[in-house]
Amino acid sequence: MPQPSAPRGLIVTADDFGLHEAVNEAVERAHRDGVLTAASLMVGAPAASDAIVRARRMPRLRVGLHIVLADGQAVLPRAQIPDLVDETGRFGDAMARDGFRFFFLPQARRQLALEIEAQFTLFQASGLTLDHVNAHKHFHIHPTVLSLLLDARRRFPFHAMRLPYPVNPPMFLRPWLALMRRRLDRADIAHNDRICGIEQSGGMDENALLAALSRLPPGVTEIYSHPATEGGITRSMASYRPQDEFAALLSPRVRAVMDGLGVKRGGFSDFWPAKDAA
Predict the structure, then answer these.
(1) Rounded to an integer, what distance in angstroms lies between the CA atom of residue 16 and that of residue 191?
(2) pTM assigned to the model
(3) Per residue in 186-209, pLDDT tens?
(4) Which of the listed CATH numbers 3.20.170.30, 3.10.20.30, 3.40.50.720, 3.20.20.370 matches domain 9-271?
(5) Cross-strand pairs, 256
(6) Residue 117: is it exposed, middle or buried by C-beta count within 10 angstroms (0-12/13-18/19+)?
(7) Residues of the chain scoring pLDDT < 50
(8) 31-42: per-residue pLDDT in tens?
(9) Beta strands in the chain (DSSP E)
């Protein structure tokens, strides 16, 4: 049975927690001094250990697992997942091609399942409470990736997942997003109603954040960004403006507007507590 939507509310998330210490510093400061309520952790990223230490200092920061299956380093050695990564153990960024391979090649799916399990295992070892699950570049929209995440739930229970459904999704994505919503509801996995940040990915600055808040739809909306205290962290994010996104999360204007809305704010578990914690 689908879970009912919580009252109108807001989840403000930083993605790529653990990618770099500049990201981790932005997450910590934006949570302590700004409006950030959640972060999605890359468990295999270079600064993941630093992110975990910081997260333990912030018990009110809701931390989820940011599964990396594209444009990032794998957790497992290449010998175990040779069909997924290059010679350096890194996933590529040709997501359409890889999506076809995940769907049609059984050996790729088996290796994908191993990598997903390894990332859940690392998160579990962190000792952090799992608030939510999502995937880098929203790759969990892919039906095969979503199936493997749902399978992993048998060993690594989770109760909430990001639904990357924008306020006005492009027509070609609507059937896939509708299917994803139905599958999450059937699996009794809580999810946000809408998301803001996809159209402005890398540019969720103060103006973009204020514009999103001015048209906040009913239900629970997740706003996500990629804040950092410095730019130029990765080549794939060369066009991003992480410092502007960081400044937006610290903006007094943004805080004042959020306060004026009078809506509940938090992480996924603040709207939909895990059944064993309810």
Answers:
(1) 19
(2) 0.95
(3) 999 999 999 999 989 999 999 999
(4) 3.20.20.370
(5) none
(6) middle
(7) 1-2, 6, 277-278
(8) 999 999 999 999
(9) 9-17, 38-41, 62-67, 72-73, 90-91, 130-135, 194-196, 220-225, 264-265
Compute the chain's Rg from CA coordinates.
18
What single letter denotes the amino acid at residue 7? Answer: P
CA atoms within 13 A on the CB side of 113: 16
Overall residue count recorded for the chain in this entry: 278
Question: Do residues 2 and 185 lie in contact, with contact meaning Cβ atoms separated by under 8 Å?
Answer: yes
Is 193 within 8 Å of 161 (Cβ atoms)? no
Burial of residue 163 (number of CB atoms within 10 Å: 0-12, 13-18, 19+) = buried
**What amino acid is encoded at 240 in this protein?**
Y
Q: What are phi and psi of 196, to 5 degrees?
A: -120, 135
Give the position of tokens 């410092």. 243
- If residue 246 lies in a helix (H) or strand (E), which one and from where to where? helix 242-250
pLDDT at 212: 96
The pLDDT of residue 274: 81
Tokens coding 148: 């493997």
Amino acid, single-letter form, for residue 258: M
Terminal Cα distance for the chain, rounded: 18
Strand (E) or helix (H) holding 197: none
Structure tokens at 107: 């050996």
Could you read off the pLDDT of 224-255 as tens digits, one per residue?
999 999 999 998 888 999 999 999 999 999 99
What pLDDT sits at residue 172? 92
Residue 125 C-beta-side C-alpha neighbours within 13 Å = 10
